[in-house]
Design brief:
α1 packs antiparallel against α4, α3 packs across α7 and α4 packs parallel to α6. The chain has one domain. The chain is an all-alpha fold and 246 residues long. The protein is globular and about 50 Å long. It is built from 8 helices and no strands. Helices cover 80% and strands 0% of the residues. The two termini are 19 Å apart.
């Protein structure tokens, strides 16, 4: 399969994940809360694992151990900081969400986030399909709790469930758009910088957004469950690295 087909398939599959919000129609609010936090912890582990076990090492292999790699990591990290600061965007992993921005703003910010994610994951595929797969897996693990939370916000904000699913899906299509633009750009210039850039995105989301959601759990049992889920996410991406090679 060509690199372009990998990128298209990854974009379509990531957009389909937006429909996972329909699961909330089958679960009570109590049961949804029980599964969301462990999924958030798992996502934090996979994002850090993707950045540290795959993207940064692959960038070093491609470009050498240059200072520019770590500058791009910080650019990726800082861009998501700017998104939160100026778009007032916040992933919600609770239903209902305590920090609930306007529903339209959620969709716009999520579309921007998905577009950047598409650029980043496509950049990984352009370097190596194996790196692309690992980046996609990490991003997908993060999207599941995010989309569940986003769907909950839209419905809690008064949207009909069918409309919420449809617009969530539309905002997810920007991931595919970002991937196609990255591929087109690669035909003109070197897009390897997208690897450390994506690593910075992943590190920010995990450390600044996801970990704070789970680190203040009062129950020792649930705290242990979340930590095990976090380690499981790291272990999965380490396993992918060992199985697929570098």
């Amino acid at each position: 399969m060509t690199t372009l087909l990998w990128i298209v398939a990854a974009g379509v599959l990531m957009s389909v994940i937006a429909l996972v919000g329909s699961v909330t129609l089958l679960l009570s609010e109590a049961n949804l809360k029980k599964i969301l936090r462990p999924l958030v912890a798992l996502a934090a582990g996979t994002l850090l694992g993707g950045a540290l076990f795959h993207m940064i090492p692959a960038a070093v292999d491609e470009l050498g151990n240059r200072l520019s790699i770590y500058v791009w990591v910080l650019v990726g990290f800082s861009l998501f900081f700017v998104l939160e600061q100026f778009l007032h965007w916040h992933h919600c992993h609770r239903v209902p969400c305590e920090h609930r921005p306007l529903t339209v703003l959620i969709l716009i910010a999520d579309g921007v986030h998905n577009f950047i994610g598409g650029l980043a994951v496509a950049g990984a595929f352009l370097v190596d399909v194996r790196v692309g797969i690992s980046a996609w897996l990490a991003a997908a693990a993060h999207e599941v709790p995010q989309e569940l939370g986003d769907f909950g916000i839209l419905v809690h904000g008064g949207w009909k469930k069918g409309r919420a699913l449809f617009y969530n899906f539309l905002s997810a299509l920007t991931f595919l758009a970002g991937g196609l633009i990255a591929y087109a750009a690669s035909l003109t210039f070197d897009t390897t910088f997208l690897l450390p850039f994506a690593a910075g995105n992943f590190i920010y989301i995990a450390a600044a957004d996801l970990v704070p959601e789970i680190k203040h759990e009062e129950s020792l049992r649930l705290g242990a469950l979340h930590f095990i889920s976090f380690l499981t996410g790291l272990g999965l991406l380490l396993g992918v690295r060992l199985v697929l090679g570098h």
